[in-house]
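Pipeline run #58 for the internal structure catalog. This entry was flagged by the ingest filter as a single-chain record with no existing model, so it goes straight to prediction. Upstream metadata was stripped on purpose; only the residue string is passed forward. Reviewer on rotation: M.T. Logging verbosity set to normal.
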Amino acid sequence: MRKTTLNTIANQKGSTGKTTTAYNLAYALYNEGKKILLIDFDPQGNLTMYFGIEQPDKLPYSMFNIKNAMMTDEPLPSPEECIHSQGNIDLIPSITWLTQYQCFGSTQLLRSL
């Protein structure tokens, strides 16, 4: 059985190199034969665009849909609907709608507690 490792790159401050680090780390691990899943939580969607998706807001499914389904207890999109693949690197993309979710979703979450 293969061991799964989770790496998180996070910092609340902008322009600290999170996206660049995630992108370069993914490709370094890919070159070692690892299977990678990148999840773009940033509403700017730069990691999504680095992945070659030029118009992320036109995608039918993204991290927005997953977060929305989790908050509303709706069924999650299937992996085939929301994961984009390039070789051994998979991506769940972001869209600018996540900005609206961050404002509305946080309030919704606090109300549910």
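catalog note: The two ends are 38 Å apart (CA to CA).
catalog note: Confidence is low (pLDDT under 50) at residues 109-113.
status: ready for reviewer M.T.
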